[in-house]
Write the structure tokens for this entry.
Amino acid sequence: MLFLKILDEKDQELELIRENYNSVIPEKFQWRTWATDPEGITGDELLSFIDHPTDGLFAHLKQLQSTKAPKRAAIVREVFDGLNNYMKSGFAMRKVINQLNGFDFNNSEDRHIFGTIYESILIELRDAGNKGEYYTPRAITQLMTQMTAPKLGETVLDPAAGTGGFLSAAIDYVRDKSEKTLSNEATLQQSITGWEYKPVAYVLGLTNLILHGIDVPDYHYQDSLKVEYNGIGPKQQVNCILANPPFGAGIADGVETNFPASFRCKESADLFVILMIQLLKANGRCAIVLPDGCITGDGYKERIREKLLADCNLHTIVHLPQSTFHPATVSTNLLFFTKGSPTKEIWYYEHRLPAGQKSDSNTKVIQFDEFAPMIEWWDKREENEVACKVKVEDLKDGFDLDVKNPTSSEVEETLSVKKCLSELRKSLGKVETALKAVETEYTGK
């Protein structure tokens, strides 16, 4: 319903600003025709209009064709292919439709309402326990986009696009930094690409991009890990990658054989790292969310990190609080790197929760303004309690990237505890020696 309403409102907007523009959806099935009248069709009549096997809404949209805008028609067709209506009450459906009609998504204020609906859907998806599906807070997508700074004309890809959060952030960023001309907008329209393999997330992402003014989103329902690794050449490579790949999620059988033998594994996030390195152009930039499990460990994990450090300049790692992706309690990191030259040193920055806050939660989601100190530090880097610099040759064996700031008060506290334990062990050793001496003397007597 969201997709159809937003598509129709964008069609109406384009009809006003473009000469001879016509919607790809036949008039009978346009949202404005059958849905906008609050006293319109309802009950069994509404269900028949939607579900009729030959003349219903779904039946027509699954076979939609257009000679004038074949790509836009193909998007609608792809969305409805395999889709079914599970609402069995036409009266309940009319109530939902009337609620949606209270919003004008071409109005900037009401457009924010979509964000609220969208976030609530994401929370429901997340809480449903779908393995590997932890959606990225908007503050994180905004930060990673701003630090990567995509420019007009640069290609931006999210190969694990989910609901399009990174891509919509990139669209907003580029528009904000560019002169508003038809030529610049046309360039932007051709610069944004996303791949997503979960059907609900795919439709939400597609809707999100249409809402952000992308007429024909380059957004594909596909498994990124099945993209032929050795077939990725200059034409397939991009300038910027922004992503939060699924971690802890299973992969399809045999997918790992798509990758070089030394990197083959069953962990999706690790395979995405190798894929992203291959997808970047020379001097291409990437910002990616990774759990602690990907920046440490041996075997194939070590070989993946070695390739990352050899092929790219991994210039910054930001440690996030453990509760950032609530309700998951996974320690995560933001990695920023540029392809083309090896890493010589890595800056580490520890983002801490606001004073007095113990964790992020449903009611206390991480906010963008919390990153103000880090953004100020970014271009004028100095070591301090939350930031330190490590040379590659000083990393622990196996290119272990899990580095703690030696100047951090938390690290000092840990070192202090270790020192106390060491002293205690020495004292216990002396006690043990004394006890043995007493035992020997007693036994002798």
Summary: The chain has three domains: 2-105, 118-394, 408-445. The CA atoms of residues 52 and 59 lie 7 Å apart. DSSP finds 16 helices and nine strands in the chain.
